[in-house]
Amino acid sequence: MEGSILEPAVEKQPTFDAAWKRRALRAEIDAIDQLVTAALEPLFRFCFYRVGRNRHLCEEVVQESITRAIAELQNYEPARSSNHIFPWLFGLARNEIRRALADNTATTSLEAIWARMDDQLRTLFNRLESEPLAEDVLEREETREMVNATMSQLPPHYREALEAKYIQRRSVREIAVQQATSDKAIESLLTRARQAFRKTFLALAQSLNTEVFPT
Fold first, then answer.
1. How confident is residue 206, by pLDDT bands cut at 50, 70 and 90?
2. Where are the domains of the chain?
3. How far apart are CA 52 and CA 104, in angstroms?
4. CA 61, CA 96: separation in Å to the nearest integer?
5. If we measure between CA atoms, which residue out of 119, 68, 122 comes closest to residue 95?
6. What gap in Å lies between CA 170 and CA 101, rounded to an integer?
7. Average pLDDT of the segment spanning 118-129
8. What is the C-alpha separation between 189 and 5, in angstroms, rounded?
């Protein structure tokens, strides 16, 4: 893994606020590029398992989702979503996934599977509103795609800290030794990283509680 988990993020995380929306609606290239660059990886991760790990189909869904997002950008409400655009994007992606599965008889059963999964995730997300984020959320098979999408949005030093602890399963002492710092500093970093993860996770999860299917 490149870089130190203690160094600040090199790249500023994009903010999809009202000012950005105005620029994007004026078709300013840098604003559109910002959206496309930020959206590709999280959308791909979100869609991949939902289309039966069909990479080609996933790429089509992601492309259509981004195209639709640009065309329907007026419907994105930064103030309502606290400047988090991914709940809205994931809602658009779920519509595109439904259309793609409807045209693919080999994967139509996935829609029912993911409907049940979404019910399970709603229960998890509702519980998270009143309970601390359980560490095993980072390790659960059924939340992997949402965890991946969340991790991709974290500042690098937070993402790398969580990966070291929960994916590589290294102890606090091991991380501290490698980084030539104290256990206390690593524990503090992990606390902040978990808080950032929880906030981002919940922001993305709001898409599951929003009606996105056309009537």
1. low
2. 18-206
3. 11
4. 6
5. 68
6. 40
7. 61
8. 9
Contact 167, 12 (CB under 8 A): no
Dihedral of CA atoms 93, 51, 102, 43 in degrees, nearest 10, equals: 10
Cβ atoms within 10 Å, residue 70: 14
C-alpha 65, offset from chain centre: 15
What is the model's pLDDT at position 5? 34
Which residues contact residue 2 at a Cβ distance below 8 angstroms, ignoring those fewer than 6 apart?
none
Give dist(CA 188, CA 104) in Å, integer.
Answer: 48
Give residue-wise pLDDT tens across range 77-99: 999 887 888 889 988 998 999 88
Calpha distance 77→84 (Å, rounded): 9
- DSSP single-letter state for residue 8: P
Tokens 């045209």 map to which residue? 103
- The pLDDT of residue 53 is 81
Nearest to 87 by CA among 181, 11, 200, 189: 200
138-164 pLDDT tens trace: 666 666 767 777 787 677 678 888 888
Q: How far apart are CA 87 and CA 177, in angstroms?
A: 38
Taking the C-alpha atoms of residue 151 and residue 86, their distance in angstroms, rounded to an integer, is: 13
Cα of 85 vs its chain's centroid, Å: 10
What b/e string do you get for 94-106 counting C-beta neighbours within 10 Å, with b at 16 or more? Answer: bbbbbebbeeeee
